[in-house]
Amino acid sequence: MTAAAPPSHHRAAGHLPTIRAVLAVLALSAVVWAALAIQAAILGQRQTDSEAKLDAQIQTLQTQAGAGSASAAGAVSNTISVQATDNKFSQTQFTVAAGKPATISFTNKGAAVHDFHIVGLAGADGQDVKTALVSPGQSATVSFTPQQAGTYKVQCDVHPSEMTGTLTVVTGAAAQTTAAAPAAPAAPAAPAGPPAAAVSAAQELPVANTFSLQATDSSFSPALFAVATGQPVSITFTNTGKTLHDFHIVGLAGDDAQDVKTPFLDPGKSATLTFTPTKAGAYTIQSDEHPAEMTGVLIVK
């Protein structure tokens, strides 16, 4: 005997819990997705706001940097006075305005020769702006108009690893210059006399108005000489060292009323001096590159 099937309304009632569960899951999923979308929108807005704030801060910093660049490098002045001793500059940071004439007054207060060289900054002649080599107690002035903004190394070419500095060329609002009072020229240093012992030894030498000598990187060979007053003297000087040297008879004037001396010679080069001494005495000989180390005595009898 076959059992009767349950009525259809009983079967539909049996599926209701499953349908309700599915609907609940779908509703929960919709809520979760909506929450995630809201959270993403909030995060996106926060990121946009943060980026906007960051951009504003960057703009502010860039503006401050442009306006404050002169302060970072030092006061802007196109009239500069600087001194050299052995072996440093009295000032090592300089700031000048682009497009305006600049003047540097350089005084050598040391005992060696020095110069002031702005490396890579071209003057009107297309060459680096620099003074000539300046003897102790002397001064030099160099004028130029910087065109290219930037930072340039300053050095003494005789002591490039010890005597250095920085010159900054600025433009725009940072280039407002302030006047600098000109420095009074330094009085030339009086030359020191040669040591008594060396003078005594040189006095014993025979007179020779023609001689040759060499320079190493620490001494002259020979270092003692005796010449006759009123007779022409010829000195042939050779640099056998590895750096620049000259031969300078301190206080003995030549025909041009300047101290008798050779130019600075590169290693392996020679020069000849010719002069007629008119005043007897003892004179110090030195290399202006190493005036404390490389010395000698010339006696005029």
Description:
This protein is of the alpha+beta class and 301 residues long. 25% of the residues lie in helices and 32% in strands. The protein has helices at residues 8-73, 196-203; strands at residues 79-85, 88-89, 93-97, 102-108, 117-122, 128-130, 139-144, 150-155, 164-170, 210-215, 220-221, 224-227, 233-239, 248-253, 259-261, 270-275, 281-286, 295-300. The chain is rod-shaped and about 135 Å long. The relative contact order is 0.11.
Q: What share of residues are in beta strands?
A: 25-35%
- Global structural class: alpha+beta
Helical proportion, percent range? 10-25%
Going across the major beta sheet, what is the strand order? Answer: 3-9-8-5-6
Distance between the termini: 161 Å
Topology as a string of helices (H) and strands (E):
HEEEEEEEEEHEEEEEEEEE
Oligomer: single chain
Q: Which overall shape is indicated by the principal axes computed on the Cα atoms?
A: rod-shaped
- Rounded to an integer, what's the Rg over CA atoms? 41 Å
Q: Quick one: how many beta strands?
A: 18
Unreliable spans are 61-73
- Major beta-sheet overview: 5 strands, mixed
- Arithmetic mean of pLDDT: 80
The number of helical runs is: 2
